[in-house]
Each structure stands twice: as structure tokens, then as C-alpha cells.
Design brief:
Blueprint lengths: L1 E4 L5 E5 L5 E5 L5 E5 L5 E5 L5 E5 L5 E5 L5 E5 L5 E5 L5 E5 L5 E5 L5 E5 L5 E5 L5 E5 L5 E5 L5 E5 L5 E5 L5 E5 L5 E5 L5 E5 L5 E5 L5 E5 L5 E5 L5 E5 L5 E5 L5 E5 L5 E5 L5 E5 L5 E5 L5 E5 L5 E5 L5 E5 L5 E5 L5 E5 L5 E5 L5 E5 L5 E7 L5 E5 L1
């Protein structure tokens, strides 16, 4: 070994005897660098006892410092940096020793992003400690927020967004994870509509908590409201309207669900008429609850009222008048049901004449001038 100093017993450098310097000092006893004796510098410092870098003896740097005791970066001995610092003890980034960055920070101690060691970023924040987004480690972002720890959307990990909010924590919509939106809100926490997960809307609201309409999940509207909580109409789920209201809770009409209106009201809850469900009106009222006439359901009038509760006439159900009243409760005449009048009254309850049904008058009551009824038989 050859040693050289500056005359003050301080070695300047040391050689292994074959022209290969092992180390060098600054002449003040401080090593400047050290080699492995084979021509490779092992480490270097700045001349104040602070190592600047170290290698593994094969020319590969292990770490580097800023000369103030702070390591700037470290690798695993194969030229791959493991981490880098900003020179104040603050690690800037770290990798897995295979060249893949594991995480990065902003140099102020805040991690900016992290990956899974396979080059896939796992999450990112805004540099203030707030996560901006997270991935599933397979390249799919799982959720994103607006930088205030509020998730903006969430995915199921296959690129399918599960739900979205408005950045203030209010969910705007939700999907089933298969790309189908399940429901939507107005951003104020009020659900606007819902579907069955198959793309069919089940119900819709006005965004104020009131359901506007509902269907059966097969695309058929079941009922509709006026948006104020009052159902306007209802269908049977097959697209046939069953009944309709005036929007104030009063039924206007009802059908049998087969397209035939069964009855109609005046919009004030009073039935106007009723059908037999086969398109034939059974009875009609005057809109005040009083029946005006009734049919047999086969299109033939059975009786008619004057609208004041008094039956005016009655038929035999075959269209032939049986009797007629004066509308004041007094029968005016009666037929035999075959079209022949059997008897007639004077409208005051007194029979005027009676027939045998064969057009022959059996008897007649007449006034003798003294207001005495004289009945004369045949």
C-alpha cells in the first residue's frame, strides 16, 4: 500500500500499490472518497464528513445525499432508485426497487399518489391530504371526489359507475353496476325517478317528494297523479285506464279495464250513469244522485224518472210501456205489456176507463154533472 500525505501526518490518499487509489482525503483528515481498490469509487463526501453518495462497488450508486446529511435518493444497487427526497428529509417518491414508483408526495410530507407496485396508480390526492380518486389497481377508477373528501362517483371496479353525486355528498343517480341507472335524484336528495334495473322506469316524482306516476315495471303506466299527491287515473297494468279522477280526488269515470267505461260521474262524486261493462248504459242519473232512467242492460229502458225521484213510466223490459205516471206519483195509464192500454186514470188517481186488453172498454167512469162518478159496465 502506498500512502501520501501533506506533511502533517494527514493522509491525502492511499493506494493499494498498483496505481489504484483506495481513498482520498482533503488534507485535513476528512475522507473525500473511498474506492474498492479496483478503480470503483465506493463513496464520496463533500469534505466535511458528510457522505454524498455510496455505491455497491460496481459503479452502482446506492444512495446520494445533498452533503448536509440528507439522503436525496436510494436505490437497491442495480441503478434503480428506491426513493427520492427533496433534500430536507422529505421523501419525494418511493418505488419498489424494480423501477416502479410506489408513491409520490409533494415534498412537504403529503403523498400525492400511490400505485400497486405494478405501475397502476391506486389513488391520487389534491396535495392537501384529500383523496381525489381511487382505482381498483387494475386501471379502473373506483371513485372520484371534488377535493373536499366528497365522492363524486363510485364504480364497481369494471368501469361501470355505480353512483354519482353532485360533489356535496348528495347522490344524483345510482346504477345497478351493469350500466343501468336505477334511480335519479334532483341533487337535493329527492328521488326524481326509479326503474327496475332493466331500464324500465317504475315511477317518477316531481322532485319534491311527490310521485307523479307509477308503472308496473314492464313499461306500462299503472297510475298518474297531478304532482300534488292526487291520483288522476289508474290503469290495469295492461295499458287500459280503469278510472279517471278530476285531480281533486273525485272519480270522473271508471272502466272495466277492458276499455269499456262502466260509469261516469259529474266530477263532484255523483254518478251520472252506469254501464254494464259491455258498452250499454244501465242507468242514468241527473247528476245529483237521482236516477233518471234504468235499462235492462240490453239497451232497453225499464223505467224513467222525472229526475225528482218519481218514476214517470215503466216498460216491460222489451221496450213496451207498462204504465205511465204523471210525474207526481199518480199513474196515468197502464198497458198490458203488449202495447194495449188496459186502463186510464184522470191523473188524480181515479180510473177513467178500463179495457179488457182487446181494445174493448169494459167500463167507464163519468161525471153526472154533480161531480158524482157514475161507473157504467158493459
Amino acid at each position: 500500500m502506498v500512502q501520501v500525505n501533506v506533511g502533517a501526518s494527514t493522509s491525502v490518499w492511499v493506494s493499494v500499490g498498483a496505481g489504484r487509489i483506495v481513498w482520498v482525503s482533503d488534507g485535513a483528515g476528512t475522507s473525500v472518497w473511498v474506492s474498492d481498490g479496483a478503480g470503483t469509487i465506493v463513496w464520496v463526501n463533500v469534505g466535511a464528513g458528510t457522505i454524498v453518495w455510496v455505491n455497491v462497488g460496481a459503479g452502482t450508486s446506492v444512495w446520494v445525499s445533498v452533503g448536509a446529511g440528507t439522503i436525496v435518493w436510494v436505490n437497491v444497487g442495480a441503478g434503480t432508485s428506491v426513493w427520492v427526497s427533496v433534500g430536507a428529509g422529505r421523501i419525494m417518491w418511493v418505488n419498489d426497487g424494480a423501477g416502479r414508483i410506489v408513491w409520490v408526495n409533494d415534498g412537504a410530507g403529503r403523498i400525492m399518489w400511490v400505485n400497486d407496485g405494478a405501475g397502476r396508480i391506486m389513488w391520487v390526492n389534491d396535495g392537501a391530504g384529500t383523496s381525489v380518486w381511487v382505482s381498483d389497481g387494475a386501471g379502473t377508477i373506483v371513485w372520484v371526489n371534488v377535493g373536499a373528501s366528497t365522492s363524486v362517483w363510485v364504480s364497481v371496479g369494471a368501469g361501470r359507475i355505480m353512483w354519482v353525486n353532485d360533489g356535496a355528498g348528495r347522490i344524483v343517480w345510482v346504477s345497478d353496476g351493469a350500466g343501468r341507472i336505477v334511480w335519479v335524484s334532483d341533487g337535493a336528495g329527492r328521488i326524481v325517478w326509479v326503474n327496475d334495473g332493466a331500464g324500465r322506469i317504475v315511477w317518477v316524482s316531481d322532485g319534491a317528494g311527490t310521485i307523479v306516476w307509477v308503472n308496473d315495471g314492464a313499461g306500462t303506466i299503472v297510475w298518474v297523479s297531478d304532482g300534488a299527491g292526487t291520483i288522476v287515473w289508474v290503469s290495469d297494468g295492461a295499458g287500459r285506464i280503469v278510472w279517471v279522477s278530476d285531480g281533486a280526488g273525485t272519480s270522473v269515470w271508471v272502466s272495466d279495464g277492458a276499455g269499456t267505461i262502466v260509469w261516469v260521474s259529474d266530477g263532484a262524486g255523483t254518478s251520472v250513469w252506469v254501464s254494464d261493462g259491455a258498452g250499454m248504459i244501465v242507468w242514468v242519473s241527473d247528476g245529483t244522485g237521482t236516477s233518471v232512467w234504468v235499462s235492462d242492460g240490453a239497451g232497453t229502458s225499464v223505467w224513467v224518472s222525472d229526475g225528482a225521484g218519481t218514476i214517470v213510466w215503466v216498460s216491460d223490459g222489451a221496450g213496451t210501456s207498462v204504465w205511465v205516471s204523471d210525474g207526481a206519483g199518480t199513474i196515468v195509464w197502464v198497458s198490458d205489456g203488449a202495447g194495449t192500454i188496459v186502463w186510464v186514470s184522470d191523473g188524480a188517481g181515479t180510473s177513467v176507463w178500463v179495457s179488457d186488453g182487446a181494445c174493448t172498454i169494459v167500463w167507464v167512469c163519468v161525471c153526472d154533472g154533480a161531480c158524482t162518478i157514475v161507473c157504467v159496465g158493459e
